[in-house]
C-alpha cells in the first residue's frame, strides 16, 4: 500500500487505516473475530488504529487492547483514542479508563471527539476545559500527540487549528461530504499549510455509498489526506478494503467530477445526518 507522511510528526502510514468502532457485539463481531481481524490487518501492513471510549461503552477499546496484548503487538501500531468530555477532569478520567482497556501505558494520539460548534470549542479551550487534560497528559507521557475531530462544520475545525497547533485532525471526507459543508474545500488547504495531519473518515457515508464502494474509497484516498480510517466488522470487509487500497490509483479531476455528479442526490439531511446540529441531540457519541 502507498504510504504518506502524517503531517509534521515524521511518521508515515498506509493510506488505509483501521476504524475499530465496529469490532464489537453491536455490529455482530465476536471477540474472537475481532482479534483475528486486528491481527490480520497488522500482518497486511495497517498500523494506524482509531477507537474511542464511547464506542459500545468501551468494548471497542477493550477488544483492540486484547488483540494487541495476546500477541504482544502494541509496539507495532499507533493507537488513537478520544475524549467526548469537554472538561479537564472528565477527560482525564476517560483517559485513565481507556489506557486500562487498551492495556497500554500510553496512546500515540488523543483527540477532542466531534467538536460540532464554536460553543463546544470554547468549552474545551476554557479554564478547566478538555484541552488542559490533553496538555497535561502529554506532559506526563500518557499521550504523544494532540488531535481534534469533526463531522459537521469545517469552520469549527478551522478556528481550532488557528487557536492551537493540533498535530492532526480527523474529519468527514466522503464524496457525499464534498457537497455540503465541505471539509475538502474549506479545511484541507489551511490544515495542509499548517502541517496538520489529516485523517479522512465517514468514507462510506454510514453505508450510503456502499453501491459505489471502490469509487468511494478511491475518492477519499485521492484527496491530500495522510490516511483514511474505515470501520471494519468482518474479515471479508478487511480483505475488500485491502484489495482496493493496494490497487489504488488517484482519481483524475474529471473522474472526481463524474463521481460527484453520480452521487449528488445523496446530499440531503437523511443521508448526511452528521452535518446537522440536530445530530447532537441526546448522547450522540453513543449513537455515532
UniProtKB/TrEMBL annotation:
It comes from the Bacteria. Residues 16-216 form the NADP-dependent oxidoreductase domain. InterPro entries: AKR2_Oxidoreductase, NAD(P)_OxRdtase_dom_sf, NADP_OxRdtase_dom. Pfam families: Aldo_ket_red. SUPFAM superfamilies: NAD(P)-linked oxidoreductase. PANTHER family: D-THREO-ALDOSE 1-DEHYDROGENASE, NADP-DEPENDENT OXIDOREDUCTASE DOMAIN-CONTAINING PROTEIN. This is Aldo/keto reductase.
Amino acid at each position: 500500500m502507498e504510504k504518506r507522511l502524517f503531517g509534521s510528526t515524521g511518521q508515515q502510514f498506509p493510506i488505509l487505516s483501521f476504524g475499530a468502532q465496529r469490532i464489537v457485539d453491536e455490529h455482530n463481531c465476536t471477540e474472537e473475530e475481532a482479534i483475528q481481524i486486528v491481527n490480520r490487518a497488522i500482518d497486511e501492513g495497517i498500523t494506524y488504529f482509531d477507537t474511542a471510549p464511547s464506542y459500545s461503552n468501551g468494548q471497542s477499546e477493550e477488544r483492540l487492547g486484547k488483540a494487541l496484548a495476546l500477541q504482544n503487538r502494541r509496539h507495532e501500531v499507533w493507537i488513537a483514542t478520544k475524549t467526548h468530555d469537554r472538561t479537564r477532569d472528565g477527560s482525564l478520567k476517560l483517559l485513565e479508563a481507556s489506557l486500562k482497556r487498551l492495556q497500554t501505558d500510553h496512546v500515540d494520539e488523543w483527540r477532542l471527539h466531534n467538536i460540532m460548534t464554536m460553543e463546544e470549542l470554547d468549552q474545551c479551550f476554557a479554564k478547566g476545559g478538555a484541552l488542559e487534560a490533553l496538555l497535561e497528559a502529554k506532559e506526563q507521557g500518557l499521550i504523544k500527540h494532540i488531535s481534534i475531530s469533526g463531522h459537521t462544520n469545517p469552520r469549527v475545525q478551522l478556528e481550532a487549528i488557528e487557536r492551537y497547533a493540533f498535530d492532526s485532525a480527523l474529519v468527514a471526507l466522503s464524496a457525499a461530504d464534498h457537497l455540503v459543508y465541505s471539509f475538502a474545500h474549506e479545511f484541507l488547504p489551511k490544515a495542509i499549510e499548517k502541517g496538520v495531519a489529516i485523517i479522512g473518515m465517514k468514507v462510506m457515508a454510514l453505508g450510503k455509498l456502499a453501491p459505489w464502494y471502490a469509487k468511494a474509497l478511491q475518492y477519499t484516498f485521492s484527496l491530500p489526506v495522510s490516511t483514511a480510517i474505515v470501520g471494519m466488522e468482518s474479515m471479508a470487509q478487511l480483505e475488500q478494503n485491502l484489495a482496493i487500497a493496494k490497487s489504488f490509483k488517484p482519481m483524475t479531476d474529471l473522474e472526481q467530477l463524474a463521481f460527484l455528479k453520480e452521487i449528488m442526490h445523496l446530499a440531503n439531511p437523511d443521508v448526511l445526518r452528521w452535518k446537522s446540529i440536530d445530530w447532537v441531540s441526546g448522547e450522540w457519541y453513543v449513537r455515532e
